[in-house]
Amino acid sequence: MGIKQYKPTSPGRRGGMVSDFADCTFPRVNCPDKNLLVPRKKKGGRNFQGIITSRFRGGGHKKMYRLIDFKRRRDNVEATVLRIEYDPNRSARIALIEYPPDERYEYHRSYILAPEGLKAGDKVMSGESDAVEPRPGNCMPLWKIPLGMAVHNVELTPGRGGQLCRSAGCSAILQAREKDWALLQLPSGEVRKVSAKCRATIGVLSNAEHMNIALGKAGRKRWMGRRPHNRGTSQNPIDHPMGGGEGRTSGGRHPCSPTGVLSKGGKTRRRRKPSSKAIIRRRPPGRFQNTA
C-alpha cells in the first residue's frame, strides 16, 4: 500500500493525498458482494430522541455497510481468499473469503478483516485443532497462539466477536499467559488481561499508511460526514461556557466542554468500572506508538 499525490492543479490538490489501493485485488473496481451488503442509516450524531449527543457530525456520502464476520466460528474449514477490497466504513481493508458448500449455511461467503500480507488465493482457517497454524489470517484462541505474536480482532468475551485492534495498522502483542488469562500489550501501551478462551486473528491489520494521508481540503472532511468544528471561544455564552466577551478572548477559564467538564488533565473513566481489574498497566501519558 502506498500514498499517491497529484499535480497541484488546485489548492485542494496541492495538499491532498490519496491511497493508491495497491493492496486491493482490483484497485479501480468497487465490486462488493451484494449478499453481504445492508443499508446504513445516517444519524447525524443524534440519539433515538433526536437530540445531538455527538457534535459536528452530519451529511457525508452514501455508504452500504459490509457485514464483517468478527466471530469466525466456522471451525476447521479451510476458506479461500477471493479478493481484498476497500471498505468505506473502516480504515483497514477487508477480505472476501469463500467456504466449501455446506447445507447448514445459507451462504458460503463472508468478509473478514484483512491482515498485512494476505492476498487473493491464500487459505485461512479458524478453530482450536492442530490443523490451524499460526499464520496471518487464521483465527484461534489465545491459549494456543505462540507468545510474542501480533494479533488483531481480539475478543473480550468468548464467543462475542472481536472488539480490540480493528483499525488500520493495529495489533496487540501476546506477552504472557497466567492460568486462564492471557496478557496483551495494546497499541496504546496498556497491558491488559484477557481470557485465554477468547479468540484472536494472527497478524497486523492492513493499510498501515492510512494515518499519513492528508485530506487537503475541507470538502473531503464533509464527504466523510464531518461538519465544521467550532471553538468554544467563538460561540455565544448561552452555547458554551468559554463563549462571549468583547473581541477575541482566551476563554477566561480552563478549557472545558459545553457542559463544563474539564478537557485537559481530567480522568473520564469510571472509578468503579468492573473491567479495571483486568488492566495490569495503564497506558503511558502522552502520545505512544506501538513499535512492534
Automatic annotation (TrEMBL):
InterPro entries: NA-bd_OB-fold, Rib_uL2_dom2, Ribosomal_uL2, Ribosomal_uL2_bac/org-type, Ribosomal_uL2_C, Ribosomal_uL2_CS, Ribosomal_uL2_dom3, Ribosomal_uL2_RNA-bd_dom. GO terms for biological process: cytoplasmic translation. Keywords: Ribonucleoprotein, Ribosomal protein, RNA-binding, rRNA-binding. The keyword RNA-binding applies. The keyword ATP-binding does not apply. Residues 45-126 form the Large ribosomal subunit protein uL2 RNA-binding domain. Transmembrane segments: none annotated. Pfam families: Ribosomal_L2_C, Ribosomal_L2_N. Residues 134-262 form the Large ribosomal subunit protein uL2 C-terminal domain. GO terms for cellular component: large ribosomal subunit. Residues 219-230, 266-285 have a biased composition (Basic residues). Residues 219-292 are annotated as: Disordered. One of the primary rRNA binding proteins. Required for association of the 30S and 50S subunits to form the 70S ribosome, for tRNA binding and peptide bond formation. It has been suggested to have peptidyltransferase activity; this is somewhat controversial. Makes several contacts with the 16S rRNA in the 70S ribosome. Belongs to the universal ribosomal protein uL2 family. Part of the 50S ribosomal subunit. Forms a bridge to the 30S subunit in the 70S ribosome. This is Large ribosomal subunit protein uL2. It comes from Thermogemmata fonticola. The gene is rplB.
